[in-house]
Amino acid sequence: MKVDTGIIELLSDVPELARRGEEAGFDGLWSAETTYDPFFPLVLAAEHTERVELGTSIAVAFARTPMTVANVGWDLQNYSGGRFLLGLGSQVSAHITKRFSMPWSKPADRMREYVLALKAIWHSWETGDRLDFRGDFYSHTLMTPFFSPGPNPHGQPKIYISAVNPLMTQVAGEVCDGIILHGFTTERWVREVTIPNLQIGADRAGRDLSEIDVVSPAFIATGATEEGLAAAVRGRREQVSFYGSTPAYRDVLDLHGWGELSGELNALSKAGRWNDMIDAVPDEVLDAFAIVAEPTQVASVLDARFGDVIDRVFVNADYAADADTWRPVIDGISRL
């Protein structure tokens, strides 16, 4: 199993962070579109590393046109020597329309078409064939030699999309190289919802499920000392309380019969009672969403839950400052 981590930092910090990540043994480094641009850090990371794969987890697709992303993805794939992984996400309606001032409708259908448009553009650049993509949401019908970068010596970047609900998961199975799961997930959700819908999408395209990488962030609570473990448990409980308070993720709790907790956490969040939110998450719920274990045991717990369904795991680790905790975790997962 591949083990990855993030490089969500100021650009000035990325070179050192990327070098340390590669030295620590990570297989991939991922940037995110939160407070920083998701693509710029990967340019620096590509320059200062040699082995690790470099991905966006995620770049907001609907904030950009397929042509814009096609150009950036082509450049990063070339500059990194074929190590770029294009991870895309839909975001939600309010952010797309109010933050980015872009259109929103039928996100699963739109994402499917977005991915197909990217592939059509890249195919045109590789082969010189006329670009003639016409869809319900995007149309790309003009590509002159002056604007074509030509074939990429490293081929097309792999495309991953983030997905929670069944329809978007089916899109990943049908047209993508991989799926990025949400951190707010459980083994039961993955096995009963994610994998069956990924299979539906793969069957629709005549693909084998083994062709699709499954990437999963992991809520890991671990520590080399009792104090460190207790602090980590508190942090992961806070994460679960935050996501659990969001109505969009209630379906995951409903599957386990914990739907009422969603309403309770949502009410506490609206009242600004943040500590009460954390304390409201029962141990049973925490254990379903997070891996709570000593550093040397994290890999075995992860393997028992997801070893047969996940290809790579994203670990949010302070590996440089706390090597005693994270070295056994990284080594253990890498051996799975």
Short description:
This protein is α/β, with parallel strands linked by helices. It folds into two domains: 2-225 and 293-334, Alpha-Beta Barrel (TIM Barrel); 226-292, no CATH class. It contains 14 helices and twelve strands.
Characteristics of this structure?
2 domains; two-stranded antiparallel sheet; TIM Barrel; 336 residues; single chain; alpha/beta; 8-stranded parallel barrel
Structural write-up:
The protein is of the alpha/beta class. It folds into 2 domains: 266 residues, Luciferase-like domain (TIM Barrel); 67 residues, no CATH class. The chain contains 14 helices and 12 strands. Strands 1-2-3-5-8-9-10-12 form an 8-stranded parallel barrel, surrounded by 6 helices. Helix 5 runs parallel beside helix 6, helix 6 crosses helix 7 and helix 13 packs parallel to helix 14. The mean pLDDT is 95.
